[in-house]
Amino acid sequence: MENNNEGRRDGVWAQPYSLASGQTQHHQLGHIRLWVTLLDQEWQIRSEALELDTDPASWTETIGHTLPSASVPLQRFIRENQSSTVTFLPALANLPTVIRPFQPLTIPPGGRCTIYVGTLVWMKVCAGDRQAVLTEIPLAAPSLTWVGRNTMEGELCYASPSFARLVLEAVPKRPWRAVTPVTLINRREQPLLLERFSLPTPLLSLHQNELGQLWTPGVTVEVETDMNSASLHVEQSLFAAAGACRHVADAREKMARGRLVRAFDRMFG
Predict the structure, then answer these.
(1) How many whole angstroms separate alpha carbon 200 and alpha carbon 253?
(2) 121-178 pLDDT, tens per residue?
(3) Residue 158 near residue 95 (C-beta atoms within 8 A)
(4) Can you tell me the distance from the alpha carbon of 225 to that of 189, in angstroms, rounded to the nearest whole number?
(5) Are 237 and 244 in contact (CB under 8 A)?
(6) Collapsing DSSP states into helix, strand and coil, what is residue 175?
(7) DSSP 8-class letter at 188
(8) Half-sphere exposure at residue 111, Cβ-oriented, CA atoms within 13 angstroms
(9) Whose CA is closest to 233, among 171, 183, 160?
(10) Distance (Å, whole) CA 217 – CA 182
């Protein structure tokens, strides 16, 4: 979709772009700017982080011959098989993501609710028909946190503050974030105070609907006795609210039993 007369267009996930030798494709997405250059023998990738006061809602790309200043870091990759196409694939975090609602949420005894959580996406830059990954870039600066009983027992995770919205229409839709519906079921006889929980982002695939929004399958969390006994299930299908979707990226990890048990142990930190 053309935005102006200078060739600036909306960027698209999982769509091959073809470059001629000497051309550079420029992207502005999330909190980064990215330049991908094709030369006779190599690919060149440059990126820089932007300091923004607000979250951008659009993704624009242009193809031309303009490079950024020499101060922008450069990565070089050998061009194999004379490939001339570049594809951008989304990926969720390679570590679990701790979701912290800005305001804790109380679920009554026997109650259930669905919250909609937005999480950060990484951009994989892939070359050629085989979509060989050259590099991947977080589309905003991720923050790390430690989840565990002490400094010796636990695991490193990403942290993501969230409004934990109960109404889908209130969730901001951005091409550099993915929406995960999380259904929380409180099977206890006491209220459940939800202050934070660990979302297994490496186990979630990515899908794009007709509006260009990224969705993951739903996640169901059940609490039987206390928060440390919670069980987690990743649904096989998408929420109907996502609409018609196409698969754009596999999960980083296959669902292994041991991996999920560790996720249970530290689900609520």
Answers:
(1) 10
(2) 999 999 999 999 999 999 998 887 777 666 666 677 878 877 778 888 888 888 899 9
(3) yes
(4) 8
(5) no
(6) coil
(7) S
(8) 12
(9) 183
(10) 9
266-to-164, 180, 190, 214, 223 alpha-carbon distances in Å: 19, 19, 21, 27, 13
First to last CA, the chain: 44
Structure-token pair, residue 36 = 């991908």
**Which tokens hold the place of 79?**
């061009």
221-226: average pLDDT = 83
- Distance (Å, whole) CA 98 – CA 236: 22
Sequence-separated (6 or more) residues with CB below 8 Å from residue 78: 41, 42, 43
What SS3 class is residue 76? strand
**Nearest Cα to 17, choosing from 104, 78, 84, 86?**
86
CB of 8 closer than 8 Å to CB of 46 = no
Annotate 121-138 with b (16+ C-beta within 10 A) or e (fewer).
bbbbbbbbeebeebeebb
Alpha-carbon gap, residue 205 to 254, rounded angstroms: 10
Please name every residue paired with 54 in a beta bridge, in sequence order, or none if there are none: none
> Residues 54-65: what's their mean pLDDT?
91
The pair of structure tokens assigned to 1 is 């979709």
- Given a contact cutoff of 8 angstroms between Cβ atoms, the answer to whether 132 and 80 are in contact is yes
- pTM for this structure? 0.86
3-state secondary structure of 29: strand
Element (H, E) at 263: helix 257-265
